[in-house]
Amino acid sequence: MLMFAAALLASASVSAAPGPKPVGACAWGKLSAPEQTQILDAYHEDRGAGLVVLMSMETQVAAAIAACAPGSQAPAVFLHRALWAEMTQQGAVRELAAHGVQRATLDAAWTAAPAARTCLRNRLGPTFGVRTPDCKDYVEVDMAKALKLTQPDAEMQASIFYLARAEGELAESVIANSPFD
Fold first, then answer.
1. What pTM was estimated for this model as a whole?
2. What pLDDT, in 10s, does the model give residues 68-88?
3. Cα dist. 44→8, 31, 61, 63, 69 in Å?
4. Rounded to whole angstroms, how far apart are CA atoms 177 and 181?
């Protein structure tokens, strides 16, 4: 288990090399534009509602994941978590666009904060069954505040984006380190 944890954290901290799209982003891209809009419209009302709509599309989600992770023996929960994290990031980005914040700004802040990324991954590690050094700091809030957003809703969406980003990277690490047929 410790070897798996070390591999998971090490691979999550390596910047993405050119190659195939992460499973979450790939699967999101396999959903049709109307399906994505339906999900994001529900997200606008409530983030949980966006997830409910996404998961109600069982057939489309299964096909998208199968197309993006062919032969993966990763537990289905991690394949789904990668997609859920991508959906949440897309929803937060859409909400933040109304406040003039673009994805590139969020990504740049993420890249510029390696200690915050490590802290978030450590805090989320136990939800992936991985023991990680404790981190109780709410660094995603600090990262959101650094964007100097004037609306509390926008700060909350930025915080949600960073949590989803960390969760997505952890899910992608589990998937990448799982056997394939």
1. 0.85
2. 999 889 999 999 999 999 999
3. 32, 18, 20, 25, 29
4. 13
